[in-house]
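Archive transcription. Copying these from loose printouts into the bound notebook so they stop getting lost. Printout 1 of 2:
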Amino acid sequence: MVKVTVWNEFLHEKQHEEVKKVYPDGIHQVLAKGIAAGDIEVSTATLEEPEHGLTEDRLNETDVLIWWGHMAHDQVDDAIVERVQQRVLNGMGLIVLHSGHFSKIFKKLMGTGCDLKWREAGERERLWVVNPAHPIASGLPEYITLENEEMYGEHFDIPAPDELIFVSWFEGGEVFRSGCTFSRGQGKIFYFRPGHETYPTYYNPQILQVIQNGIRWAAPSRTAVPVRGNHQPLEPISNQS
């Protein structure tokens, strides 16, 4: 069983009627319902909870953390960011969605500005699978079409991804690296672009399938934690006849 925590600011849905109509109970609740499966157990956390809902106990019980943020990146406490970073380095998976590219935790783990072009115009997006053999692309067609989405365009200021799985094309002509993986320490990170708050992207079964696949891919490997520092010689291997 993979234990997942979906983190969402949960501010747009309370402050903007346009968003509330699409996600009346919050993006986190729609995601939690959409990705739950026999092997995936989901809970949620939001910005305004104590410690943003990301206490040490909660994070220690989380195999994969999903992060959606937009209007309140600066309100996330630096101590919580450090806590999440350490959990990733120790093996927790992290899936960063849409405007989470500008979150403190993603920028900290990437070490770059993570900026990009954007345009909110409800354009068609065609999300091409460019690495069909990757587990995150399992069960998908050649591309996913979203009739209305916010445009994100290159250049996306991130390090070169370990793996590139999706590339988006938009009606305005822009392209974007929309599905990228990275490793940091023992942890695996998946950035997935779609999911603007005024569009019903997270009700799309193919988008939910990508996130489910990402959860299974990012789950901790459970291998032994590497030993570092001053190290004594290993016991010699004896020859036995």
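Printout 2 of 2:
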Amino acid sequence: MLSLLAALVLAAVHFLTGQLQVLDDLARRRWLSAAGGVSVAYVFIHLLPLLAAGQDVMSNAQFDLLDYLEHHAYLLALAGLMCFYGLECMIQKHRNRLPDQTESHGGVFWLHIASFAGYNALIGYILVHRESPAALELVWFTIAMGLHLLVNDFALQSAHNELYRRRGRWALAASVLVGWALGTATEVSELAVAALAAFVAGGIILNVLKEELPEENNSHVGAFVGGAAAYAIVLLVV
């Protein structure tokens, strides 16, 4: 039930982005920068060590296809980063060809949404099959991922305008719940979970660098550093 509640919270995040639109520019930059700081802290304090643990799982697995790869998890993370980077480059080229305030082409929009829907579904799945069953760890994971999804959601809304508000956010909210439902209904091997998590870790790292490390002209350094420092302390102490 706790994991279901966490999934519902993450799904609800996709309907909160509109609240940022009503804030003045300075307040909005502070919130987004603080959220970016929290997510960066999560990547370096929790995600990278988790990637190392996934590497240990793969190194000890008897799976012929991976035997010749010395750094399985890290190569999968690199593959995930490159896939998301390629997708973002394609989206950006499409956006550059459109006049300002014009909605994206439907095919490009749904490709973008489909990639983030898979991303969200994995987060929902991990809510069930997370590394530690401790309730407090679930709380901190939900906070970090909620802020991460908030920044992603803001970027997607800026990219796709009304089309995202009408359809995209519903798809992404539903995908978190679909991932949670799959997690409760299925049990996959530790190797498969480690491989999938490593692939998506690359995507998370790219999104942190692309969206959550704020650009100089759109950032609030104090909020960013404060968010990163506060959450790093939480992860190290708790």
